[in-house]
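pasting for ref
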Amino acid sequence: MSTPISPASSASARELAGGREIIQIGMMVGDIDKAMAQWTSIGVGPFYVCRNVALEGVWFRGQATHVDLTFALAHMGGIQLELMCQHSAEPTAWTLGQEGEIPGGQSIFHHVAFMTDEYDQTMADLAERGIKSSMDIQSRDVRTAYLETRDQLGFLLEIQESRESLNALNTMVEEASKNWDGSDPIRTLNW
């Protein structure tokens, strides 16, 4: 049985995501290289980093926007860790709740992510419960939404559409973490 994550929530993150398992936690960071070094120093890695991605196909609160983002993915146990650093000044779901820039060595918990084979139905179910998307992304063949759940949970929910390309990326990152010996801790990911 799920327990509410915060006293104000009427449902847990897992309940809101239709019972799906959390596949990822996301952290906003001020300095992605320092953050990756901090995580690899405790044995999390290797990281796959994609620098200065000029994301198009992004809608924040219904308005099209362009974003410059660096992100890095690693796996720890059964969950993926995503570190994100937005370089552009546009307001996005990645900047929600931030007061200015994140200091270089610090991280802010941002979201938990779930994957679904039934993206449209999942989004409709969440809308029926009053959960609105703050940001929608269509990148390559994958749709992603960041849902405005800060009042219920204290953080955002990310819903990812299950696609072969995304599943292959997630599997590659997870497999690289198994028996990782600390070598080649930062690897380039071309997006």
